[in-house]
Write a structure and sequence with these properties.
three-stranded antiparallel beta sheet; globular
Length: 108
């Protein structure tokens, strides 16, 4: 079920989650470790707006500023694509899984 009914709601959800660190791998910068991990596991297909491709950036102040703005949440399409399906770790996440519940469900 989608998280945000509007782009503004999706952006707010992304910013509430606001990861403290970003991932750099495969010459790309990812705003969120969850999208990076989901893609690596084959569970999610990235869209071009979900990362900054460092191979396409030139050295210089403009490229550094773009990467910094991206890390601060200034992303194309208002939010990275996974934000509309990921509950995230922000204060708006009301879908809390109790301790060991997830493991018990898998065993059944």
């Amino acid at each position: 079920e989608p998280i945000g009914e509007t782009k503004e709601a999706e952006k707010k959800h992304m910013l509430l989650c606001s990861p403290g660190c970003h991932i750099m791998s495969d010459k790309k910068v990812f705003y969120c470790g969850l999208i990076f991990s989901a893609e690596k596991c084959g569970l999610y297909h990235l869209q071009q707006e979900d990362y900054v491709d460092l191979e396409k950036k030139k050295d210089g102040l403009e490229a550094k500023e773009e990467i910094l703005r991206y890390c601060l949440g200034d992303v194309k399409n208002e939010a990275i694509s996974i934000c509309n399906v990921c509950r995230g770790s922000g204060s708006d996440n009301r879908h809390i899984v109790g301790v060991a519940e997830q493991c018990r469900k898998r065993q059944n």
